[in-house]
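User
Here is a favour to ask of a fellow structure person. I am asking you to supply a protein in sequence and structure-token form. Please set it down just below, with no commentary around it:

Assistant
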Amino acid sequence: MHIEVTRDVFRLAQVFTISRGSRTEAQVLTVSVMDQGITGRGECVPYARYGETLETVAAQIAGLPGAFDRAALQHLLPPGAARNAVDCALWDWEAKRAGRPVWDLAGLEAPAPCVTAYTLSLDTPDAMAAQARLHAARPVLKIKLGTPDDMPRLEAVRRGAPAARIIVDANEGWSAAVYADLAPHLVRLGVALVEQPLPASEDDALLGMVRPVPVCADESCHDRASLGHLAGKYDMVNIKLDKTGGLTEALALRDAARAAGFGVMVGCMVGSSLAMAPAVLVAQGADVVDLDGPLLLAEDRVPPLRYDGSKVFPADAALWG
């Protein structure tokens, strides 16, 4: 087995801002697994929030032994971006070798298109209202908040998109007191879900707190080992392949979360269609789907995933799986 890691950069259609900073491009690592004349591919986005960089993730992959399978990989690397790219590349390789799609190899039903949320970048209230008007026909809009001036932004988005279902992502930017203060206004404005309102290290404050709007764990949920710490705090979990360490664990986490009574959201980092393709399989039947990464790009893989408005379709085998 030979593994090749390349760095790819995709320009964004516009500056993308969250409470932690702004970016103009998506920097990803593409992993190619080659064996028996067959090549499988996967993609990951290292996340600084978890101490990952392009260099550290590439080094993790370079340190893998010369031969291993997907089951062994789960123990060779921890959950995170490195394992994600390799795991997804191995799934792609297995599908090509078997001449069967990944969903069939995984014992899943044939995937169907999903409706994805569309993310509005953090900006001034007027700019966010303009973004909302531009995308008002989309059924689900996701708003990046987590600042001292969140309410004017949320009010502006609701004015701009009066019929859209709104999801708020605070990116760990609120305190328990701020969330309690904002909760009635979130209800008034028809917010359907709040992602990670408190820092993961402080989310015990959610225990016993009245949650009139469902709360979803993002930074607090990585893999199945996280679930035991989430009961009583969260109503849903956000499954991202770059957190779980690949499709293998993501599918297991989805099943375990549902069995534990959590709703399921499937999200993404800002990456290309190659990163979204395996996530579409996890998103089947999810309560909320947030796989809009390619919609934020000015350029993408060839061939890309097919999007029709906010509807994302399963990948063609020429892309992945």
